[in-house]
Write a structure and sequence with these properties.
about 325 residues; alpha/beta
């Protein structure tokens, strides 16, 4: 199914045209259909990407480590994802995944068969990204008598992003991990310690920065080099121990949660260190503090004026003496 169709029902008739056969074969994967993966074609990669409904959108949590920040700026609704037909298709795919996992995996395997054949015809390298908008542990799901889909397709290189630190540790340890499945850890507003641990262990971490389109990304983050992840989405050949820098797109441009790492002040646009994790530069923070202090002082002064002048203690003493004399 493409992103514009619903889950296909079993058919009793065989497709009679090449177009129909291709449509039937690629019911789940999108191939060459979005800017994210098309960039890789210039480097000889043909990528099939699977888009499911993220987080709890389908009623089942497909992103176990989703945060408020990533849910708010999720690319699920960017580009064609803004179309209701696309959202309906992604939810339908996710329902198919949960209702009939073995059937879903067989359909996915058929799609990867087609991807591999097309890549061979074009003399390209086939890549599979199965978590386009999800964070599913595909390494644990068997298909066609194999332990996972990576084992079923050893000539296809698979790659994904994940916020699951346990998955990332297993990948880095390379114990019982498919050799043709590459993971990149995704930093969020809640997992910076995990992200730094991944980098120190030689893994890669994807970070969205507030860098504008066309502007240079930071050279480093906490001493780790930043490479431009917008050049291509294909991650398998990245150097190890680097930050995959991404420019914030769509709703992420307006993030206030800390999910996007700012490189310029949100108020005056002055440069700030991305390691600081701040939205504003020191000058703007100081100016804001000064404004708050001045406002508090003004409010206290207004309250004093409303209460009227404080009584003079000497006048109060004279009044007391006078009242006592009068009583005598």
């Amino acid at each position: 199914m493409s992103d514009h169709t619903s889950v296909a029902q079993p058919s009793t008739t065989k497709p009679t045209t090449t177009k129909a056969r291709k449509a039937r074969r690629r019911e789940l994967l999108s191939v060459g259909a979005d800017p994210k993966t098309v960039k890789g074609e210039a480097f000889g990669f043909l990528t099939g990407i699977l888009y499911l409904a993220p987080a709890m959108l389908s009623g089942r949590n497909m992103c176990s480590h989703a945060t408020d920040g990533c849910r708010e700026v999720c690319l699920n609704t960017s580009g064609k994802g803004a179309l209701s037909s696309v959202q309906t298709a992604r939810i339908a795919k996710t329902h198919a995944f949960t209702a009939d996992l073995s059937g879903f995996m067989e359909t996915l395997a058929a799609d990867i068969d087609a991807l591999e054949r097309k890549a061979a015809r074009l003399s390209m390298r086939p890549l599979g990204r199965l978590n386009g908008t999800s964070d599913t542990p595909w390494e644990n799901i068997p298909v066609r008598g194999k332990r996972n889909i990576m084992a079923a397709f050893p000539r296809v290189t698979f790659y994904d992003y994940t916020k699951n630190p346990a998955r990332m540790r297993r990948f880095l340890a390379a114990r019982n991990w498919p050799s043709n499945y590459v993971l990149t850890f995704s930093r969020s507003e809640c997992n910076q310690a995990d992200a730094l641990a991944v980098l120190r262990a030689g893994g890669n971490v994807a970070i969205p920065f507030s860098t504008r389109k066309g502007a240079a990304l930071p050279a480093s983050w906490f001493g780790f080099p930043v490479v431009d992840g917008d050049v291509s989405d294909a991650r398998p050949d990245d150097s190890r121990g680097v930050v995959i820098g991404l420019r914030a797109k769509g709703k992420a441009k307006h993030d206030t949660s800390g999910f996007v790492v700012r490189v310029t002040c949100a108020t005056c646009d002055a440069p700030i260190r991305p390691e600081d994790g701040a939205r504003d530069c020191d000058a703007c923070l100081d100016a804001r503090d000064d404004a708050v202090w001045a406002a508090e002082e003004a409010a206290e002064e207004a309250a004093r004026e409303a209460e009227g002048p404080e009584p003079d203690p000497y006048d109060a003493w004279l009044d007391r003496v006078s009242s006592l004399r009068g009583a005598a």
